[in-house]
Amino acid sequence: MSFFDAVEAAVTGFLCEGIRAADYRVAMAETVQSALGVGSNRRGSPYEPLTVSEVSGGSMLIRWSDGMVSRGSLTRAPQAALEDVLQSAFEGRYDDPDVVDFPGRSDIPDIDLHSAGTEAIATGSDARALPEILEILEGVREGCGAKLLDASARAVAVRRRVITSGGFRGDSDSTTMAFWIGLDSLACDGFESRVPFAVGDVRRRAERTADDFTALSRELGEGPRGRTRVVLHPRTAESFLRTFLFGALSGAAVANGRSRFTLDDFHSGRIAFRDDFSLRTRPFTPLGVGSFRFTDEGLVAREVELIRDGKLMTPLLGLKYARRLEMDATPVPGSIGGYAFGLGRRMSREEALSGSERCVLVHSVLGMHTQDAVRGEYSVLAPQGVLYEDGSAKGRVTSTLNGAFFSDLLSTDLAMVDFDGFACPGLMMEVELS
Amino acid sequence: MSDNRPLLLRTELIAELTERAREAGVYAVFRFEEQRSRSIGIEGVRVEAVESSFSGGLGVQAFTTSGHCGFSSIDDPETDRAVRALDRAVAAAKAAEAAGLDANPAILEIPPETGQVFPATSYAFSGLTVGEMREHAVVVAGEFAAAAGGLTVRTSFGISIDSWRIARTDGTDVHFEVPRSMLHALVTARENGEAVRTSASITGNSYELLLDREARDGLARRIAKAADLARELLTAELYLAGSYRLLIDFALAKGLAHEAFGHAAESDGLDSSILGRNGRFRTGERFGSEKVTIIDESIEGDNAFQPYSGNGVPRRAVTILRDGVLKESLADVHTAHRAKTPVTGASRLSGFASPPIPRMSNIRVEVADPVPIPQGKDFYDWEPEEVRDLLIEAGDLPEGKKIIFLSGYRGGQVNPALGDFVFNCTAIYELTTGDVKLFKPGIFSGRIEAVLHSIARGYGPLRLDAAGTCGKAGQSVPSSGGSHHFLLIDENPQVRIGGRS
């Protein structure tokens, strides 16, 4: 019996005090992964060895015949441990009137998420791909004059299954390939794909990182002070968006009064952003890194408008909070690549950096996780900014960025900036630097 | 009190794996882990989720005789699956050798170790059913909601017992458990579209956080203060960014030691760290005021306790900085030789599926000759006005001067290569002889080389229970530490707080 089947059988067969599972949802995943890293120029050191691993695990939600609810999670385990988790979950069952929806049979969109080539790398059948990527990155390091390379490459193959007592049954195979490059701890970038990276693609992306390294290597010291145009690199922009915007769109946060936005804001379609700002999910791109077929709750993928013309349309809602807020559930992508951001003012990286008399390209910030996500105000250190004057990179500056992100999203100064190879756009905005 | 110890049953499997590894001509480290955990989240007094979890597996790290390494992990490591993991690790190590990857034979030379550590706890993990845990937590959440005086409160409690058995083919066999628990309350104040969060938490190692009156009453008092602070912060202003004479509390001092110094002292990063030169730890060089000593020490019962390294080496206390001078690196067996410092057993375990890496446990800043404070007064009972009076009495806050008091730790981050660190606080107070003013929090940032030279004075005894979570290289482990109740940091242009311009 497979582990998936064992878990389902354990849930359906459990009986205690005359109580059994009346409804349930089980979401499981089997993952195989290969990885190899470089730490301080050492490839395959004991900290980043050549690795082949497999792990299975998942979660379960049960509504018992007495109306109470339990949750549990586990990795693949002997039958006794599985029964122990079920028994503990049963003992801890609680009343939750919002847990009543267990999706039924659905037509699952047929979206290609799987690459046989990536799976071969993940299982170790293709042992050359990961070293090849790292060899390219080592060559790029030598070419740009960086002293130290830190890098990693990995391939992952995942087999997922979600089943519910309502009749939903979803199986999905997906793959992900990723590499990361860091040069002298000054410039770093990470990239993901569902298919194996082409050699030329790896080199092109790494050379762009090397260009950033060259600019960051010229240390100028303190950066400009006062209100200054900045371009947030996609990695930095993503950290802002995740902390503040997606934090505020969380259905649990809205329902429990911990979001900047209230339920009324969504019902009334409050304009909280610039009127040309939009955000929707984008789950159907074939082999897109943010694409998916169904969620762990058994919600099939569909496009959802979260923000339209600056108006709040819906929070990100799982089944529980959708019921509590009396709104439709929203299938949520697992990565930023599953979202499409829209803004009237949009430009390329080159246009953004050359179109300003003076601006700072912020490659990374320190301290984002310490910010108060509800308030939206931020104060973060940016030790890896590059000062551009008339489109020319002058060198590395250090600044502290201070501001209020929700105000930034309303500002007419805001623009989205497309960076080659990144799903999330960069953001150009005026920020107080200190 | 203890629970069942299922990893005791792995002895035969370890023997079988050891024999198989020897036959393959490799040295291997076997890391068995089983973790059981329970958690509950309560909004106000409404239970939002109760969860029971189990995870367990085996990580195998194999080394060829030349020191080339391969790693594999697998869950549910019954014999066939464990053998599969070993075979994969062996194949990976031999492939690494064939490809000429990094060779690091240091582990082949260390002596074998045996031992067991099972910390005592007030209550066994299975001493309460999950249902009983839920009922107690609901009562506690009600007390916390009342303490918050009408503000939104989310109460969460988590308990886990993490069991490890680490064996090596040289006969090493160490077995230990790390029990942990945490009770946390998140308070949210809202007004006129503004919202502010504050929080309070305590850590322990069993259900004592729920069951012992003193622990929960202490946290309830802190929640009441956190609620008051959240209300006041709704209308507080940002402070003027700049460099000031600063006072930080023990939790922020833990953040300072952890972010500004501890990470830079880890032996795997000394090729790029500012505390390293050509991969060597800069032992003997001055990096701080002669009053300052920084020590990392794994303490039984603490949030960051881990008695053995991920390779089965006993973890010992490490004096990173003594009287301002660098002494020892946080070194594990793989990079201590390169760092030219002793092996201190510093690698932490974040899970069976990850190779261990050098990390801190409980890190503290000690300052010579601290100013004594009244005995018997709990740290959390100090009001900002009393802190101001303490500074005046100590002669550190004269008329016409000000000290900026950063209170409450909200996490931090560091780039050890560039020497930049940041951390954030819950609130800023401007202390003068005539007034105490509250301001919104601002990021505290600086240069590692600068800040330790500016530590001027400590106040009160050591308090080491500031707990958090440390992320590094995609791995996450519990961390903790502290210092004297308060630390005074002299004004330094390379140490700033963010705020308005």
What would your notes on this structure say?
The complex is a heterodimer of chains A (434) and B (501). Chain A is of the alpha+beta class and 434 residues long. Chain A is 25% helix and 37% strand. Chain A has helices spanning 3-13, 79-91, 116-122, 129-144, 199-217, 234-249, 251-255, 263-267, 319-325, 349-354, 405-408, and strands at 15-16, 19-39, 42-43, 50-64, 69-75, 149-164, 169-183, 187-193, 219-222, 226-232, 278-281, 305-308, 311-312, 339-342, 346-348, 358-366, 377-389, 392-404, 415-418, 426-433. In chain A, the strands form three sheets. In chain A, strands 1, 2, 3, 4, 5, 6, 7 and 8 form an eight-stranded antiparallel beta sheet that branches. A five-stranded mixed β-barrel of chain A has the order 10-16-17-18-20. In chain A, strands 13-12-11-14 form a four-stranded antiparallel beta sheet. In chain A, helix 1 (3-13) packs across helix 2 (79-91) and helix 4 (129-144) packs parallel to helix 5. Chain B folds into two domains: 6-233, PmbA/TldD superfamily (PmbA/TldD fold), CATH 3.30.2290; 246-497, no CATH class. Helices cover 21% and strands 38% of the residues of chain B. Chain B has nine helices and 23 strands. Chain B is globular. The model of chain B has no long low-confidence stretch (mean pLDDT 94). The chains are: A alpha+beta (434), B alpha+beta (501). At the A-B interface, strand 3, strand 4, strand 5, helix 2 and strand 17 of A face strand 1, strand 2, strand 3, helix 2 and helix 3 of B.
